[in-house]
Amino acid sequence: MAQAKYDYFVTKKVFLDAFGLLEKDTFQSLQLRLTLSAGVGYQFLDTGRTTLSTSVGLGYVNEHFTTLPQTETPSSRWGIRFQHAIIPDRITFFHKQDGFYDLAEGNAVRFMADQGIRVFVYQDFYFNLEYDVRLNTQPAPGREKLDEAFIFGIGYELK
Question: Can you give the pTM of this predicted structure?
Answer without folding.
Answer: 0.86
